[in-house]
Amino acid sequence: AGLRRGCRPNPRPGPLPRTPFSFIGSSRLLRDCGRFLSLTWKDSRLRVLGLDPGLRITGWGLIEAEGTRLRYLAAGVVTSDATLSLGARLAQLHEGVRAVLATWQPQEAAVEETFVNKNPETTLKLGQARGVVVLAPALLGLTVGEYAPARIKQAVVGTGRADKEQVGMMVRTLLPGCHTSSADAVDALAVAICHAHHVDTARRLARGVTVR
Prior knowledge:
This protein is of the alpha/beta class. It has helices at residues 29-37, 86-104, 120-139, 149-156, 164-174, 183-206, and strands at residues 2-7, 46-52, 57-66, 69-79, 108-112, 143-147. The protein has 6 helices and 6 strands. A hairpin with a 2-residue loop joins strand 3 and strand 4 (69-79). It is globular and about 50 Å long.
């Protein structure tokens, strides 16, 4: 149990300054646009950690975005030991994600929104795993964007009805150098791509907003 890399990462660049930009929700658009216009962007690069929570396996994927340009940094999974108690497994997930954060120092994070499973027990366990995974970046003060599955597929493939194979193919196309075989890590990278696209869109919108 613990941290496993899904594929060989590119050489890790040095730490980037924490971006003052935050995830855009509809009710926060004008406020965040105003914050953006009041700042001078000397470095528009954004390092994003995508997370795909699961009690047994949690995928993670890290990218760097500069405008519409995306660069793959690393991806992998954090696993928990099924023979341990629920509390111990949740602790393993939390510590694993904390290790990723400490190593790569992302500026923002993103996660897929929770969906309701037909099995109530499975849904409950997924929710608990998701909670401890999201808590790790939140405790560091990072913004954590949340996206519906269809929204992620739309951002990556162009249609909200894309299947996993299509998403995986587009992730590898958009991120040259990533050859991970882990479906969980690929899903996490898709979440990161979605977040990067929405941040870039918000930045473009901000340029057309007049702040009084």
